[in-house]
Amino acid sequence: MADTDFVLLESSDGYTFSVPRRIAMASQTLRSMLDEDSAFQEAKDKTVRLEYRGIILLKVIEYLQYKVQYADFASSDIREDFQDRIDPYIALELLTAADYLET
Amino acid sequence: MSFKDTWVKLSHAIREIQNKNAPKISFEENHRYAYNMVLHKQGEQLYSGLKTIVAEYLDRLAEERIVPAFPRASGTAGTSALGSGAEAVERAVEGDRFLRAVKSVWDDHVGAMLKIKDILRYLDKGYTTQNGLPTTLEVGLVFFLSHIVRSTNHPIHTHLVATLLSQVQLERDGHTIQRSTVRDCVDFLLRLDNPERLGGRSVYATDIEPEFLRRSAEFYRLEAVQYLETGDAPAYLRNVERRFAEEADRTAHYLSSLTSVPLQALLVENLLTAHLQAIMRMPGTGLVAMLDADRVPDLRRMYTLFLRVPDNGGKDALRLALRESAEARGKAINDGAASSADAGMDVDEDKDKDPKGKGKAKAPSAMATALAQALRWVQDVLDLKDKFDIILDQAFGGDKQVQASINEAFQSFINANPRAPEFLSLFIDEHLKKGAKAKSDEEIEQALEKTIILFRFLSDKDKFERYYKNHLARRLLYGRSVSDDAERGMVAKLKVEMGFQFTQKLEGMFTDMRLSAESATTFRHYQNRHGAVPFELTVNVLTASYWPQPIVATSSCSFGGTLKGATEVYQKYYDSRHSGRRLTWQANLGTADVRVRFKARSHDLNVSTQALVVLLLFEDVPEDEVLSYNEIKSATDLADADLQRTLQSLACGKFRVLTKTPKGRDVGANDTFAFNDGFTSPLARIKIMQVASKVETPKEREETQEMVDEERKHQVEACIVRIMKDRKTMSHNDLISEVAHQLSSRFQPSMSLIKKRIEGLIDREYLERTNDIGVYRYLA
């Protein structure tokens, strides 16, 4: 699948991220929102506005990318631990976002 | 924002989704509302609120869209005809409209629920599953069941069931319905499950299927009765076949495949099992008629349909009926043969009383009819066998059990004809005899192959052997065999069937003939050295034990002059080659070519040896003198029966070489005979046949039976001794069954026969009774 299909994710503080749909779909919540069969507003506009700060959203997207990249790997083959990339200051906020987005 | 406000917004969003306004709604926003509510312990409130909204929604849809689509009076439709023509079409359309309405509600509801489920995703994640409650989607299904399908406000359930059934019924009656609509409704009913406490099966299984099956059973029960009344079995079966296909198609296309099994069983039950006999015995069109007309497709249909009846019930019934039919046909053949054979005999006897002797010409023809009758019997049986073979092969797929039944039938009726062994042997005789219709080797081979099949059915094989031996002896001695190969081929076939013992004597007969032919050559050389016999003499030396009794039975005959000399020469020759063997001359078996000079011209006569002996007497008798019956008798020493027959053939047959006084057909003891010097005939060579019957007269048959019975006694005794010698002691019942078993390949010994033989052996002290009741011991 060529990454020509992008969706926009907007943060509460006005940042907009253009993300390949393939990556966004790694979140169950985003997948539901963008499901074209359900045809919600978000799916129509290909834009999702989320109540999280840009810095949080950035990390979420980074994680989604990480998740997709290693989706087909056995856990023993993954050398890179995502925890190392998380700034402890945003950890809590990131946790709630993760729960909400079902990443 | 308070939870109350949140709920107001969320509930509004849910209603908007139900109204198909999803694109106007922000998923994220509402998802967040639900997320927050669940996160803040408001799950229960959200859950019950959702239920209320769904219930309201469904009630509204029922009111607005389903109730107006109710078909008129669909609830009353039963299995009775649903009207015809326009009315039926209208009903189909109405039913379809109603089903479509229900289906559209279902589609909308399910569509909405899928979206709602997505929005309330966190409710399922954080509340329902944790509390063991039905998930959002399940709530949707449960509510659809309780508020639409089983609505308490509207009679939707009644209409739904009735409409589905009436659609099927309409199609069964030959109308067109929208299968896809029915299919859709059935689909969602299959998806709807009853609550756990009601067994959790699909609503289709509990609400539709039982009623559907009940109606179907009723419908087909009535249809079966109606169709049977038309009295056309093939049509009935075609209809059944069509119905099977239709219902299979129906379950595959728009009902549940789970229904297929009970539905097919129900069809079998109502259309077939209950009416097996009625179908087969339908006058004029049933099994018998089908067999009569060789209606293979109909028979095949019957067979394949009957196979569906459980527990082999159909096939067993079919087998029984087939057997009955085959037996009835066989009996008809038997009756036909018996009546006309007897008629032939009756004519014969009537003729004897006929004072004018007119029946002379008829006599051979009556024999001929009797023979023809015998041949026809076999041919008829063979034809019948062919017929059944073809049907078995083409209609019943060569089913072994069916074949067994047919074979049983053949066995039973063939053995019901007491003359079957004789007829069969006559049939073979007819085919192996020279001069019959010109037949190719293949035809003969084929005919013989078939007779072997009939032979297998025969239980009195020993009787057959006796007749066969007689006929074979005649063929061999009178040189009538069409070919040696064919004869040996037949014997080889019998050998395969019955084993070495059965054909041992037959082969012995062939050997005798071969040795005789060889010794004829050496005898010629012998004559060169020791002085020749004044005429050509060919002798067939027969081993007495191989040849049938009546043929080797000593018949007295004293040879005169030349003949006597010739026999003495041969006797010497034979003694010189074999010692310790006794030759008995059988004048009744040979033939002689003799040139006789009449007034007009000479003729070559081909006569029996006995006739030759008689003729030679007249050689020395001066013209115009006569010989009385008694003079001839004392000169030839022939038995009365033989002499009478011989004289009859010479004086009363077609060619009257002798004149009898008084004239008449029968030869009496006071008749006198003279040489008929004035005999004329256009033929140079004349064959004077012995007046001899081919088919047995009733009297001969009795004699044969007696001889067979006598032989059986010996066989049974030999068998008992053989068994007892081996076992030493044996119980009565075991012994009887063992004897019956061992002899069954040759004939079926009766219980009383075996018992009598055991008694006889006890009397002669081969066996003795032991202290145990019913146990015998062998006395060495």
From TrEMBL, chain A:
GO terms for cellular component: nucleus. Its main location: nucleus. Belongs to the SKP1 family. One of its GO terms (biological process) is ubiquitin-dependent protein catabolic process. Keywords: Nucleus. The lineage of its organism: Eukaryota, Fungi, Dikarya, Basidiomycota, Agaricomycotina. It is found in: Nucleus. Pfam families: Skp1_POZ (PF03931). This is Elongin-C. Residues 6-68 form the SKP1 component POZ domain. Signal peptide: none annotated.
Automatic annotation (TrEMBL), chain B:
SMART domains: CULLIN, Cullin_Nedd8. GO terms for cellular component: cullin-RING ubiquitin ligase complex. Pfam families: Cullin (PF00888), Cullin_AB (PF26557), Cullin_Nedd8 (PF10557). Residues 333-363 are annotated as: Disordered. GO terms for biological process: ubiquitin-dependent protein catabolic process. Gene3D superfamilies: Cullin Repeats, Cullin, Chain C, Domain 2, Winged helix-like DNA-binding domain superfamily/Winged helix DNA-binding domain. GO terms for molecular function: ubiquitin protein ligase binding. Residues 335-344 have a biased composition (Low complexity). This is Cullin-3. It comes from the Eukaryota. Keywords: Isopeptide bond, Ubl conjugation. InterPro entries: Cullin (IPR045093), Cullin-like_AB (IPR059120), Cullin_CS (IPR016157), Cullin_homology (IPR016158), Cullin_homology_sf (IPR036317), Cullin_N (IPR001373), Cullin_neddylation_domain (IPR019559), Cullin_repeat-like_dom_sf (IPR016159). PROSITE patterns: CULLIN_1, CULLIN_2. Belongs to the cullin family. Residues 419-651 form the Cullin family profile domain.
